[in-house]
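Worked problem 6 (solution included).
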Amino acid sequence: MTDLSKVDQYLDSHLDQSIAELSKLCAQPSVGAQNLGMKECAALVGSMLQQRGFQWKSSQPTARRW
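Solution. The predicted structure is:
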């Protein structure tokens, strides 16, 4: 079995930050069916990923096929 004590410790020490980030994501309007706020939401998620050291590059949406 995997020891998850380090994961638990990280979650405990970053709980406020995680809740604030989740609140920010939930407050970001995005409606895929209407293409509302999708670019802005993608940019927000990309920014959050970059803050954690990930490389992120914006891409162009593909054409709808329906």
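Discussion: The first helix runs from residue 5 to 13.
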